[in-house]
Amino acid sequence: MSPTPKTWGRARPRCEATGSHVPRAILTKESPTQRFMRRPKRVLLGVALTLLGLASAGSARADSKIYQDLLRSTGLVEVPDPDGSVTYGTCWVVDRRLGLALTARHVVGDAAEAVVYFPAYRDGAAVTELDHYHRQVAAVRGRVARRDVARDLALLRLDPLPDHVRAIPLAAQSAGPGDAVHAVGNSGVRAGKLWRYTAGKVRSVYHARIRQGTGQVEARVVETQSPFNPGDSGAPLVNDRGDLVGVVISTETQTRLVSFNVDVREVRAFLGAVVGATEAQTAADAPGADRQSPPVQGSWKVTLITREGEQLPGECRFEADGTFALTAQATAGPQTRRGRYSYANGVLLMAWDRFKVREALHWVKDRRFTFLSDEMLIFDRQPDAGAAAESPIPDVSTGEHSLRTTEKTGGPRPPAEGQPLANGPGEPPPGSPVRPAEEPGTNWVLASVLIGAVWVFLLFAIKVRGDRNPTKSTAARRWGVEMDAPQGVPQDRRQTGA
After folding, report:
1. Please, which residues have CB within 8 angstroms of residue 32's CB and are 6 or more apart in sequence?
2. What are the extents of the domains in the chain?
3. Which residue intervals of 209-349 are DSSP H helices?
4. Whose CA is closest to 215, among 275, 169, 153?
5. How do residues 217-268 score in pLDDT, each as one tens digit?
6. Which of 348, 290, 347, 291 is closest to 318 using CA atoms?
7. What is the pTM of this model?
8. What does the DSSP assignment read for 367-422?
9. What pairs with residue 87 in β-bridges?
10. Cβ neighbours of 54 (radius 10 Å)
11. 340: Cα within 13 Å, side-chain hemisphere
């Protein structure tokens, strides 16, 4: 008699149709979730993967918030030159109450004025097309109030600022190696695209001498891995809290992913020198006053000379909101062009319909100028109470990484002696909510831990419920096995009592 084969545990039933053993997994009363819960390693792995996914999502949301916050403070700088070129760069608001913005000195060069555009929004997102701003958005007029060649910084006085614009607070201390940094600039302006986001890590912080085409920078710099490009000059470099730690100035041309930014300590020293140095002056006594452009805002009598030499009378009015209306008396009746304009350094940009013309004006005693495009337009100033009230804002000048291509009414006055700027280490701009004490990202970490704990609790509850209410699985029914019977005893043998 052959020995009885040794068995381990209960015998498994056989399938009535095939005679083969029923898989052990089908005989169990546990659901897949319950089997998963019996293995602690799998539970821990699941929790870890969940937290990792939440951390990645939280990091992406944090970067998006920093980008949106930077958009509220960042502007596009256009510096037109009478020679036909335009230099593009980036600026950021340092003091909303005084209307002050900071950019790189090599962006403005020796110009007395600049044109600034702040982000406009469509369907909740920032419009990135440059042409939209020239045709649909009011340009902010800017006057260069101060320059520093050694630090490569320049201060702009802007008026008026859009309502949604806010100032960026200065960080209490410099960034350190390994710190994450963020910036929004306009390196895509040549392709007509604005507001590019750039992220990177700090490589080092040190005092450096950097030779540029417009002079030598000698200042404390933050070296980063950020891939900045022409058009980003002057952009704000912020940490994860959204506080300024530097200003973008240039990149290393011989080495990849090496960018230089003026450290926040230099920015604070530069702004500190503004106190008392920009006391109120008359326009005639201000340095650079002789380079200010005559005003164009107001009413003008126009003579339009066509290509055929026909002279058409007309009139034009340049409004303070950046719009204009030009009407000429043609043979077929009055023809009116309506559009937007910007004006700086004696260069006028007019955009209407499908046309956009930027030309230097030729002035005759501040009362007449000519504008050349496909036609010649001769403007003669008309008496206008609004224009008479205008007065240029004085320029107080003291003294690369950019792209090359007005008078003020009731503008902000410079700070009085001893008056600090309304911006300091970690101080939020006026009217903005107070920043929380914790670092950004703390909330989503706590939320991730909480969600993970809830997830583990739910799986545990499912396991307990499954133990109390075992059910017959679909696979077991397919194999013809009753789960409520003792395992290892086929159904037909239980019925016969064998």
Report:
1. none
2. 24-65+446-496, 73-283+392-440, 296-389
3. 264-274
4. 153
5. 999 999 999 999 999 999 999 999 999 999 999 887 777 889 999 999 999 9
6. 348
7. 0.68
8. TEEEEESSSEEEEEE---HHHHT-EEPPP-------B---EESSPPPPPPTTPPPS
9. 79
10. 17
11. 14
